[in-house]
Amino acid sequence: MKFDNFSIQEPDANVKVKDTFEIDSNLKVDSFSANNEYVPKLDADYCFDKATTLSILAGFQNNRRVMVQGLHGSGKSTHIEQVAARLNWPCIRINLDSHISRIDLLGKDVIAIEDSKQITKFQEGILPWAIQNPVALVFDEYDAGRPDVMFVIQRVLEVEGKLTLLDQNRVLTPHPYFRLFATANTVGLGDSTGLYHGTQQINQGQMDRWHIVSPLNYLSEDLELKVILSKVKELNNKKGQSTVKAMISLANLTREGFKNGDISNLMSPRTVISWAENYSIFNDIGNSFELSFLNKCDETEKSIIAEYFQRCFDSETSDSILNLVEQA
Questions:
Q1: Are strands 170-172 and 117-124 parallel, antiparallel or unpaired?
Q2: What does DSSP assign to residue 189?
Q3: What is the phi-psi region of residue 165: left when phi exceeds 0, alpha when psi lies from -120 to 50, beta otherwise?
Q4: Model's pTM, two decimal places?
Q5: How far apart are CA 278 and CA 79, in angstroms?
Q6: Whole-number pLDDT of residue 315
Q7: 183: which of 34, 66, 197, 214 is 20 to 30 A away, CA to CA?
Q8: 13-215 maps to CATH 3.40.50.300
Q9: How far is residue 174 from each of residues 73, 177, 198, 246, measured CA to CA in Å?
Q10: How do the domains of the chain map onto residue ranges?
Q11: Coil, strand, or helix at residue 229?
Q12: Range in 178-187, 200-209, 284-293 the model is least confident about
C-alpha cells in the first residue's frame, strides 16, 4: 500500500453514539463522510463492549492517547478498527514485533532514479507520514516493542508532541486529527503468568503519557454467545445455540482453571469462534475441539481439560475425548 496524503483533511460529519454503537448516550462524535482505502472494512455484526467503546471514542473525539489492555483473543485491535470503520477514520495498525526498528518508523535514505539519474533521497517511515495526516495509528503488541523503538514513540505520545527528524533537520507538528492508540496484553509491568513471552516492562514515564488505559477482558456469557453466533450464522438455531452455550461453558472452565493454576492454557473468545467454525465444517464436536484447542495443550494437562469437556457435553462425545487423552 502506498501512503498518500488525503483530500479531506478534517472530519466533515458526525455520528450519534446511541444509533451507531447501540450505547445509551447522547454523545456525537466527529467522523468523515467519505471512505477511503485506509479505513478498515466494516463488520456489520460486530458486538461492542460499552466501556471500551466509550474510551476509544474519547480518543477520537478528544484526542486522548488510549491503550486497550487485556488477555489474548479479547478483540482489542478489532475494537479500535471497528470504531474507526464506523467513523470512516483512516486507521493503520503496526505490530511492534522485535523486527520493527527506528528506521522502519522514522525512515531511511534510499537510492532512487529521477530524471534518468541515480540519487539518494530520504524516504519517510510510517510515523512521519501518519503524524502529518488525519490518521489513527494503532500500535499492536505495545508491550513487546524494543526499547529503542519505544523511545521514538514516547515523544509523540504527548498531544502537542512534535517529531524531530534529525537526518532531515525537520520538526513535524502533529496534524490536529492525528490519533494514537495501542493494544497490550500487560500494563507495562511485565508478564507474571508465563502466557506472553517476549513482552517487556515499559518505562513508567512512558506509561504515564497514556491518558486512558481501558481493560478489555473476556465477555459475559450472553455477549460471547451473541458474538459467536454473529460469526458462525449457521449455528444460530435452537440446536446450534445450545451447542455454543456448552462451548462457552467449557471455555469459562479453562479460564477458571488457568486462574487457579490448574492448567497453563485457556480458551479465548477467538478460540471458541475457531471451534464453532471447525464444528460447522466437520460436524463433530469432539474432533473440532481437538483440532481447535486440545492439540495446543500440555500432555500432562489434557486429562483435566477432558474432565471439563465431560462436564459440558454428553457422555458419548465425552468418552471419545477421554479415550483420546488416554491413548496420548
A1: unpaired
A2: B
A3: beta
A4: 0.79
A5: 24
A6: 65
A7: 34
A8: yes
A9: 32, 8, 31, 49
A10: 13-215, 221-327
A11: helix
A12: 200-209
